[in-house]
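Quick note —
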Amino acid sequence: MRFQREVTAAILIPAVLAVLVAAPLWAWALLVAAATTLALLEFYRLIEAAGWIVPKSAGVGLFLALVAAAYLASLLMLVVLAGVALFALPTLVMFASPREAVLLASSASSVFATLYVALGAGAMVGLRAHGWKPVLFVLATVWASDSAAYYVGRKWGRRKLAPVVSPKKTVEGLFGQLAGGAVFGLAISLLLGDGRSAVFGAAAGLLIAGLAVVGDLLESTFKRSCAVKDSGGILPGHGGLLDRLDSLLYVSPAVLLLLTALPESLPR
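Predicted structure written out below.
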């Protein structure tokens, strides 16, 4: 079907924005938890596709507990649960009695996948605790810059950016993404904030766009390592949820740190 990518975005984006802006924090946390749980399960399937094993039930349980700790803003719970994941998941892998050759890979990938997705999901919830404007800034900048990269790369892309990891990405698309991030960061800051935040908005947009590229490429390395093309097919024209959330999972913790250190850097 033509324009699958555009149709899917046209349906999902208004629904996500409605929950973000109009619903309370707990509703946003539930939405984030639901979407990222599916993304985590896709990550687990990548691990299994590589021939490794993962204790999925325990991993999902710990993941949801970590998201709940982020919702409660409990640093102690986050540290304790991360420690539990670090020890419990490899222990469960061991008791599953896999072949010795996959013990370390299974243990390391199980812990990494769980904590990686949990860090991004928790940061999305933490950003919403500061208000809906910082989250909207991140979502809009990531989506807009990603679309700029897609269309610029498709029209003018010639030089491959990372041919081994992501053959379709181009240097021209990267420039389009960075420029789009800066422009949209500036525009969103003017719409949501005031003139004083415009320079910060452009700089934050550029940073977010750059980090989004890294997050996208990083997820591509995971898929390449597991010999999988797409993490899933739940979103027509976009692949799986992990494919769509890869940039947000990578960007959100950095933006939460930025907002904590420089509150004036994003609209509030």
